[in-house]
Each structure stands twice: as C-alpha cells, then as structure tokens.
Amino acid sequence: MEKRPLRAILRMARPQRRQMVLGLVLAIVTALAGIGLLVLSGWFIAASAVAGATTATALAFNFTSPSAGIRGFAVLRTGSRYAERLVTHDATFRFLAGLRVWLFRAAIPLAPARLEEQRGGDLLNRMTADVDSLDAIYLRVIVPSIVAGIAVLLVGGVLLWLAPAAAAIVVVLALLVGIALPLAMRRIGAAPGQAIAAATARLRTRIVEGVQGLAELKVYQADGRHAEAVLGDNETLMAAQRRMARLSGISTALSGLAGQLAALAILALGVAGVAAGVLPGPAVALMMLGALALFDALVPLPLAFQNLGRTRAAARRLLDFAALEPLVRDPATPAAAPVGNTLVLSDVAYRYRPGDRPALTGIDLVLAEGQRVAVLGPSGSGKSTLAALILRFRDPDAGSITLGGTDLRALPQAEIWRRVAYLSQRSQIFAGTIRDNLLIGAPEADDATLAAAVEAAGLAGWVATLPRGLDTWVGEAGIQASGGQARRIALARCILKDAPILVLDEPTEGLDGETEDQIIDALDRLTAGRTTLVITHRPALLRLAESAVLMAEGRIAVQGVPADVLDAALPVRAKRHVAV
Ligand SMILES: Nc1ncnc2c1ncn2[C@@H]1O[C@H](COP(=O)(O)OP(=O)(O)OP(=O)(O)O)[C@@H](O)[C@H]1O
C-alpha cells in the first residue's frame, strides 16, 4: 500500500505545475495586498484623526500618498484575487481531469475480468467523489499553507520591528493556529474523515444499485426496505458529517479566539507603548489590523487539515484501484502475428479463485480454420468461461490455447481482438444513435455497408419504422431497444467487423421463433468459412455447426457431429437445459 498517497497523487499534477506555481504567486500577492490594504487603511484613519487635532498638523498631513496606496492595494487585491481564482481553479480542474483519464486508463486493462469483481457504484464513486475531493490538496492545503507562512513572516517581522513583545505574543498565537491546531485537527479529523469517505461510497453504491434494480425491487415490494437501507447509510454519513461539523465549529472558534487575543494583546501593549511615548498612536491601529489580517490567512488551515484524512482516504482508494494487477498482460516481446485462424485448446483448466471448484478441466478442443463448433451444456457448465479464455480475457491455469500455432499468451491482446468478433451474453447498447452503435464494429463503414448489416441482422423492418432511421437515439435518454432488438444491433456490429473468428454467446437468446429462424439464416451466411464458437442452449442453432461439444461440470462430456451430441445430451442431466 502506498505510504504517502497524497504525494503520489500530487506527482500526477506535473503538467499543471507551472500553472499551479503561478496560482500560488497570485494567491501570495492577493494576501499581501489584503494585509497592506487593512494595515494602511487602519494607519491612515488613525493618523488622519490624530493629524486633524490641530490645523497645523492637518495641513501638514499628506493625505494623497496613503489614499493612493489604499486604492492601489484595493485594485491589486481585486485583480489578483480574480486572476488567482481563475488560475488555481483552472489548474485544479485540469489536474482532476487528468486524474480521471489516468483512472480510466488504469481500468482498461482490468476489463473485463478484474472489473467484474468491483461493484459498479463503487467504481463510479472513485471516478467522481474520490477524484473531486482531491481538489483540496492544492486549493485548500498547499496554497493556504504557503500563503499563511509568508503572512506570518511578514506581519511578524513588522511587529517585531515596531513592538517586540507584541510580536512574540502574535507569533506564538499564530503558530498555535497555523501549526498546532491543524496538526491536532488532522489527527482528530482522520476518523470522521475516513468515515465520511466510506459512508459516501456505500451510500452511492446502494443508490446506484437501487436505481438499476428498481423494477425488481418494486415487484418484490422490497423498494421500501431498500429505501430504509439507503436512509440508514445516509444516517451514518450524516453522523460522521455532524462530528466533522462540530470539529469545524470548534477549530473556527479557537482560531477566532486566538485572533482576538492577539488583537487584545497588541492593544494592551500598544496603549502602554503610546503612553510611554515609544510608539506613535496610529502604529497601534496598524499593528492590530495587521494581526487580524494575519489570522484571516490562518483560519482556513485547521479546517483544511481536519479534512485531510478524508482526502487521504480518497487518494488511497484511487491508488489501490490503479494498482490492481490485470489478470492478463501483453507479453514483453510479442510473437509475430500468426498465419491462419485455427484455435487449439490443449488440456485447458481454469478456476476463478483458488479453492473454487474448477470451472474448466482437461479441455481439448480444436476449432479448425473456418470450422463452426457449437458448445452445449447446462447452466454453469463452463461455456462462457471457455469463451473468456479464447478471447484471452483470462489465461488458463494449465494447458494452452494456440491461435495459428502461437500460444495466445505470446500474442498482444490487440492482435487477438483484431481477429475476433464477439457477441456477449449481455448486448451492451451505448447511449448514442443506432449508427453510433453499429460503427463500433466498423468505424469506416459507409451507408450501404451499414444497411446490408442491418438487413442481415434482421433489423431493417424495425429501423424502417423509426422516423430518424439509423440516426435514432437508443440507450439512455433515447429509445430503449427491446432485448431482441439490442441483440440484433450487437449482431449487426459483429457482422460489420468482418472478422475471421467469431465467438457468439447465445446469439438468439431473447428472440421469438420466427426471428430466431431469420437470424440463424443470417448467422449461417456470416459464419460460413470463419472459425466460429457458438454457445447455445437452443438446438435450432446446431444446424450452423459442423461439430459440437457438450459440456458438463467444466469438462467436455461428448464431442462429435451436432446431431449425435444432441442425442447424447438427451439422456444426461443436461437434457432439460438443452431442450427448448
Ligand atoms: N466471475 C466469476 N467468478 C467466480 N466464479 C465464476 C465466475 N464466472 C463464472 N463462475 C463459475 O464458473 C462456473 C462456470 O460458469 P460459466 O459462466 O462458464 O457457465 P456457463 O455454462 O456459461 O453458464 P450459463 O449457461 O448460465 O451462462 C460456474 O460454476 C460459475 O459459478
């Protein structure tokens, strides 16, 4: 585990470094202009009041330069604050955008095998709330800490010159508020901070799952119970937030108190100094306002450090995710692209987790170039696992799979996927037009090619009824394609890819008999001459295949021509799963 997660995350701000330094300089200028404005105004008001005591002193008093200085500081502070906000926030948003891209890139090699282990809501939470909370590192910790340090040096230095005793008191109080209090708050805030991060993640995950499964929750009348669980999570979050808010209240009160004490000490010592004639009266106003301005710069620090635990927890969650090892890696020195598309599985075994029952054992199977093999078997017999290994989503624990004579592990994954079109069990429809969804299969396809694929996948009739045709928006915020339509869009994508190898997992699932017949005809044309693995529960699909295997409990129980395998399937336990 990363020991210093915030540092590790901050290292990723390299592209924004210049902008961040500029933002820091602007923040320092703003703070100094603010202090200058307060101090000069305080001095000016007091000094002009003193000067106004007699006509001679009033006439001799120089009003012009200080008032010009005040105006100058005011304009400078406004301008630099505006620029500072612009620059620091722009740098932060760019930094966060970079983090999101980094996280998404880290997720790609984990898909699909490792991502299946993650809860969707949790991943979403990492990409959004966790990343967002990292804005605090630069905006709320680094910049204010440096600004406060400079303010202490400046104000402390001026006070030391004017009134050393007052300076000592102010600096001690400033160090208490600027260092001791933040460190204490960091420690005390760590537990509620982590509790907030964890409770936020839990709440989001439960809400996302609830929204996704709302139809089922409603039918089972479990929505009320789910809502109660959400409220329970919310209560936990609010309890942690209340603890945090109480801490914020205490720390703000303590910082405020320290500021007032500093002002009081200056007033007491200053008045004594004026009485003793060692300090001009207006200097007291200057010192008091300087101290107040200094504490204004210090107040954000305890609050920022109090939330550091939460920020650190978020950073750790991101780094932990990015450090997940992909199950499959590209070889360091990939083999040359093999000639031919024959797939040979030799004595392949796979189990999902150590200690699990093997999902596959002793699989020997040849998919010769252009040959179509159907895989039958009851639910849980290992059919999808077989497809996952052939697609190299996972590597076998034992045995080997070769493509054109080369072990899949020696090939870059991209080389394998370049040759394969895959119809998964769950056809993913992306939010976009039907055309967008199809172009995933072949980005360069022209209208005629798209139309042919739509026709072959049995979609033409449906598309013709849509006023916008292929430009109809489907998926989120569009037409919700039915299960069968989604399946056929995915099938059209496969057709468009025009790949030499096809892996089809239940291609006709969710289709009625008549449509299934049409699709099987289309699949017959599509798969002819291509190396094909078709997983199915439906005997009708067997007519596509030249050979078939029957899986049972992770093994190939029977292998042969489809009719024989189907016959063999009937007496075994698999019968009821295979029959339509
Ligand atoms: N991600 C996973 N983690 C752990 N075990 C898994 C995982 N996926 C599948 N399994 C297990 O592996 C075995 C084979 O599952 P597989 O999905 O390959 O079966 P299948 O024949 O495709 O089933 P179905 O026809 O229902 O899709 C099952 O016992 C299943 O519980």
TrEMBL record:
Keyword terms, alphabetized: ATP-binding, Membrane, Nucleotide-binding, Transmembrane, Transmembrane helix
Gene3D superfamilies, A to Z: ABC transporter type 1, transmembrane domain (1.20.1560.10), P-loop containing nucleotide triphosphate hydrolases (3.40.50.300)
Annotated membrane topology: Multi-pass membrane protein
Residue ranges of domain ABC transporter in the record: 343-578
Transcription listed as a keyword: no
InterPro entries reported in the protein's UniProt record: AAA+_ATPase, ABC1_TM_dom, ABC1_TM_sf, ABC_CydC/D, ABC_transporter-like_ATP-bd, P-loop_NTPase, Type_1_exporter
Domain ABC transmembrane type-1 residues, every copy: 21-310
Bilayer-crossing regions: 21-39, 137-159, 165-184, 252-278, 284-305
One Pfam family it belongs to: ABC_membrane
Taxonomy, superkingdom: Bacteria
Subcellular location: Cell membrane
UniProt keyword Ligase, yes or no: no
Alphabetized GO MF terms: ATP binding
Name of the molecule in the record: ATP-binding cassette subfamily C protein CydC
Source species taxonomy: Bacteria, Pseudomonadati, Pseudomonadota, Alphaproteobacteria, Rhodospirillales
